[in-house]
């Protein structure tokens, strides 16, 4: 089987679980004997584009002519069985779906966010959940609130893109919804049940976990929607040292807050930005991780990593987080009172949940399980003709 994997990688200075997942999925498919034809673009390449390409850049979310030309050539030469799309923005465009169909190639898309409806893809604005664009033919509120990169112009382009490609998205042969919540999002958009398969992501098996460590780890982008402020406010409700130690890894706009609290309290340590292996090393010495997201986080890779390493999770009860945690931790409403009350019991119970967390990973998120599900999706696709 030949599969084109199409993905626009996010900028390297914005750590993205989605980039990691795509790379891992390619490796898992190749290990299963699939011929993978990567069709990748990176937002890091934008500064090095030619003058002519930069002129066309504003319309690339809608059409991206260079990408369509290159993809058409690849499809003609390689004649793949399927195109698997992840993120199309900004250098690929949803138009790749039309290009694939024009060459008789069925399309699968893994839905990592809410971008069919929401310009930034988060359903989150100004520190709170926002669904103003849901059900609208044109995402005017996104322009009003400058939801895409804080720019009226770029928000207008993205809102136009979402309107232009409604029919494109509805023509995708199969959607992979990472959770039942994403499946509901797609149905609300008009996607039929026959176009949706619910399948989570996987991470590679790090091997048997060590004995339970100590303390709580927060490892994520330090941005408001990831909930660092919520966690720190709840942590500060307890005397210094009463809960053990809290370690924070990551970078972003809330870094000054992390540094401030670490300077104020002996039980909080800010580790700075760590790469994936660095996070894993700290994770394996911790008792539990915290995922206090205040947006409807789809499928945080940090939770799957924690489960793989036998570490339970305390997270909010939003998006795909409760599904991921299941019985391997605690799903708590996103309020300071609820988190302050839950933290002592969660940390006390953490050492007893190591085996539960590891079992959750082995049965649901191991590559052998998830890759088999993905291959079954490919095999079930309808045959198309150019």
From TrEMBL:
List the Gene Ontology MF annotations in alphabetical order.
glycosyltransferase activity
Q: Which UniProt keywords apply?
A: Glycosyltransferase, Transferase
Set out the biological process GO terms recorded for this chain's protein. Answer: carbohydrate derivative biosynthetic process
Q: Which domain of life is it from?
A: Bacteria
Residues annotated as domain Glycosyltransferase subfamily 4-like N-terminal: 27-201
What PANTHER family does this protein map onto?
SULFOQUINOVOSYL TRANSFERASE SQD2, TRANSFERASE
User: What's the protein name?
Assistant: Glycosyl transferase
Q: Which organism is it from?
A: Catellatospora methionotrophica
